[in-house]
């Protein structure tokens, strides 16, 4: 019996496991998913919940999300030995595998920015909205906010969904206008880079929108620490940013089971990400190992849209190996980011390794697609291993 182990039940892991279960004979192949969590959250809701555009209940039990015939092991992965081909668990026996799919995502670490965790836990002004609890709390804070500086910052680390800070910033500015307090609010976002969005022509379109709406972008800002008592963010170059309401993006890293408990990330530049071939998603040293999504080092944008494309590539390549064939499926770097600019308007940034794909046009249809259609597509199609959209 061939055993495939999928580490992680986020977007990439759940999709890949369900595709493999559908494609492979259950009499000859076992598929196991392991994760320390029991709930799968629709993470794109985290920047919509604060404004009331999606209701808070946006999760599903993992064991109900997986197809019948996929075994779910609720345990924490503490290490992977790709030479002996087993996954080490915190409280259960080791899981031996013939093929391994790593989809562990990013690890959010608010303690990596001094003062951030204290500011979140001990004040009513700081809400790192990549955490579900903070997104809920930010909803209440926005209702009480009556003016001052609304600040969004980003860490020096790579982040999942790089468009989310921009979307939160634009939706907040629109929210303040609709509440009639825009003249009393300064809206500021920072990033430790030259631009707020990395891909053209969407970048120029966003600059145009931000200039029209007086949203301030501060480039090349590295957050050093947060002083919750003073309501100040100190930067690495000695500057400081005042805030009255602060929505920081938490620093993000590879999971410790990968970075400390395995050699799978040893070849990456910073030791944080599983090293793979950017097209086949196969590990560059261990032929039985594949990885996708936020946990690997391929140069694509870390979005669920990228993971859904990679999931089909990984599943097809694993299926080919199970059948004794070679690896042929390739991922082209596709990623998509619906950029919600204000209530009822959005533009969609689509691009791959080579070029941009969609036009930078704001439409109501894009908003409807992202807010009203995609959640159902996500749960009922993508997570089940189907891909009805191009």
UniProtKB/TrEMBL annotation:
BP terms from Gene Ontology: sulfide oxidation, using sulfide:quinone oxidoreductase
Domain FAD/NAD(P)-binding: 3-121
InterPro entries from the UniProt entry: FAD/NAD-bd_sf, FAD/NAD-binding_dom, Sulphide_quinone_reductase
Organism per entry: Natrarchaeobaculum aegyptiacum
Source organism, top-level taxon: Archaea
Pfam families named among the record's database cross-references: Pyr_redox_2
Membrane-spanning residues: none
Descriptive protein name: Pyridine nucleotide-disulfide oxidoreductase
Molecular function as annotated in GO: FAD binding; sulfide:quinone oxidoreductase activity
């Amino acid at each position: 019996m061939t055993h495939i182990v999928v580490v992680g039940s986020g977007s990439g892991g759940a999709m890949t496991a369900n595709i493999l279960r559908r494609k492979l004979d259950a009499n000859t192949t076992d598929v196991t998913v392991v994760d320390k969590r029991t709930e799968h959250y629709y993470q794109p809701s985290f920047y919509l919940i604060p404004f009331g555009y999606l209701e808070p209940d946006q999760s599903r039990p993992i064991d109900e999300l997986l197809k019948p015939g996929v075994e779910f092991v609720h345990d924490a992965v503490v290490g992977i030995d790709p030479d002996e081909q087993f996954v080490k668990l915190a409280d259960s026996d080791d899981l031996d595998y013939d093929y391994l799919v790593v989809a562990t995502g990013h690890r959010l670490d608010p303690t990596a920015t001094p003062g951030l965790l204290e500011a979140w836990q001990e004040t009513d002004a700081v809400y790192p909205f990549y955490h579900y609890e903070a997104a809920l709390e930010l909803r209440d804070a926005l209702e009480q906010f009556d003016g001052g500086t609304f600040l969004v910052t980003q860490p020096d680390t790579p982040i999942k969904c790089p468009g989310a800070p921009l979307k939160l910033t634009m939706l907040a500015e629109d929210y303040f206008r609709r509440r009639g307090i825009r003249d009393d609010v300064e809206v500021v976002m920072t990033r430790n880079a030259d631009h707020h969005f990395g891909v053209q022509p969407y970048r120029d379109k966003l600059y145009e929108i931000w200039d029209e709406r007086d949203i301030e972008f501060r480039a090349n800002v590295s957050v050093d620490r947060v002083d919750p008592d003073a309501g100040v963010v100190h930067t690495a170059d000695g500057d400081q940013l005042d805030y009255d309401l602060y929505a920081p993006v938490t620093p993000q890293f590879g999971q410790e089971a990968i970075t400390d408990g395995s050699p799978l990330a040893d070849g990456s530049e910073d030791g944080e990400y599983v090293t793979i071939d950017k097209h086949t998603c196969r590990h560059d040293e261990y032929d039985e190992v594949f990885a996708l999504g936020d946990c690997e080092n391929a140069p694509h944008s870390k979005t669920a849209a990228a993971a859904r494309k990679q999931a089909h590539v990984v599943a097809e390549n694993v299926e080919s190996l199970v059948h004794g064939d070679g690896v042929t499926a390739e991922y082209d770097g596709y990623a998509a980011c619906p950029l919600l600019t204000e209530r009822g308007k959005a533009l969609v940034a689509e691009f791959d390794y080579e070029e941009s794909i969609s036009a930078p046009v704001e439409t109501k249809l894009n908003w409807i697609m992202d807010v009203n259609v995609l959640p159902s597509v996500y749960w009922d199609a993508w997570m089940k291993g189907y891909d009805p959209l191009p």
